[in-house]
Design goal:
The protein is of the alpha/beta class. It folds into two domains: 262 residues, nicotinate phosphoribosyltransferase; 170 residues, TIM Barrel, CATH 3.20.20. It is 39% helix and 20% strand. The chain has 17 helices and 21 strands. Strands 13-12-1-5-3-19-20 form a seven-stranded antiparallel beta sheet. Strand 8, helix 11 and strand 9 form a beta-alpha-beta unit. It is globular.
Length: 476
Amino acid sequence: MRNLTLLTDLYQLTMGYGYFREGKHEQEAVFDVFFRPNKLITYSVASGTEQVADYLQSLRFTEDDVSYLRSLGLFSEEYLTYLLRLRFTGDVYSVRDGEIVFPYEPIVTVKAPMIQAQIIETALLTFLNHQTLIASKAAKICAAAEGNVMEFGLRRAQGADAGIYGARAAIIGGCTSTSNVYAGKAFGVPVAGTMAHSWVMNFPDEESAFRAYAESFPENCLLLVDTYDTLSSGVPNAIKIFKELRARGYEPKGIRLDSGDLAYLSKKAREMLDEAGFEGAIICASGDLDEGSIRSLKNQGAKIDLWGVGTKLITSADMPALGGVYKLAAVYEDGKEIPKIKLSNTTEKITNPAFKDVYRIYDKNTDKAIADLVVLFGEEIDEKQPLVLFHPIETWKRMTITDFRVRKLREQLFSRGERLVKARPIKEHAEYFKKEYARFWEEYTRLDVPHIYKVDLSESLYRLKAQMVDQYRKGE
């Protein structure tokens, strides 16, 4: 487990020093991680919370870290000595990896001494912003493909960690395998891949390249057929080798297309394979695919069974940043909670104050999600009583629901610095996401003009927020 304590912005440490000098460093504070909407964010798939937990467990400044900080000439020896003893001692409430989450709701809440909560901000946002972004992109791609997507992005990722943890997030978001061997070992996920064009080009001709590969992998023979000419050369040569394999008692896996008109080529290749008696051979496609191009190909009747998606998945090409933020929600004085709020001339940027919790509300009859409700921490919802939901800004938009059930969206990850939830197998996260995804109406998850899922405030939280906004506006 790497020690990433210095994975922070300098201003976290300078603020920490200021708190230390002012005697506020041990004051308990509450911070929320959430993200705001944009035109590309509909739902998101949480990922990265287990890396958050690993990071907090190993939080400690080494002698070498402190020597480096001393060299900056910014901090007193007293402060540096304090940092040497610092460990995470707070509470953390978090959604789990694979949870479907929406703008404005706190997906992680940290309740800890101010200096600890401040120093960890950058790392938490790094882990959660990146991995949630990639898991969300994978979910959309897999939805368009209706499953059977391989993650192929390592060589196009923005660095090794982005490739490794991006592969993990992609599996949580629905991909069935990854080309990333390191991630396969680290996370216990299936790896996939056969050959590149260089393999074919390294032999005298395509037929001999295919035959050599079939000799090495007779039980897993998937041939790349577009190096020279897909229909005139690639597919016919693949069929010839497939016949040789069958004569030896093996069945071929299939072919891969990586360029050209994938709709047309896949349909013609399917005809050729079927006519040759290889109806079970699959057709895999790759080449700068995303949810839009996959959906277009499917609408054109492309005969593609398996999709390899790389660059546009691992970089989330159309939206390269989630934009998650970490905002102060409360501090404690003499054991009493003092809610905090950030104001803005943009209504949507006004934060929700206080220590909070989140419920997801389901229709009992359909088991489909109706809305998420952000409440004051400890606030309970009575499932036996009608519940009024209202828009947190346009409050005249209201609805009353009955016959519903609720569940808390988050679990307590840390208590007084002790990790309460052990790491789960990645397969469990992926299965959890699929199960929860099925509990949302298609209107909320569709690719085009999705309906906005409701994230509302409880009456008590709304009143507190309105009161604080009013007080600040009046200068009280």
